[in-house]
Amino acid sequence: METVTEQAWWQKVATGVRAQLAIQRRTSVDLAAVLGRGSNYVSLCINGKKPFKLDEIEKAADWFGVSVESLAKEQG
User: Fold this and answer.
1) 45: buried, middle or exposed (CB in 10 Å: 19+, 13-18, 0-12)?
2) What pLDDT, on a 0 to 100 scale, did the predictor assign at position 33?
């Protein structure tokens, strides 16, 4: 029997960030520079292994030109 677990809010944000990176054809290296973080850290965050900090979510949303809420919406 398979069980489905709901994603944590920060994993939804990671999905939203990945989607925006693809839509806007930007790279995780570009995002790392905007956030002032290393590319390894950003990689962990966008892959849902580690949560972004709230100020990083705000910076990313501003850089993408979208709302913070839109990054956490269910994708698909």
Assistant:
1) buried
2) 98
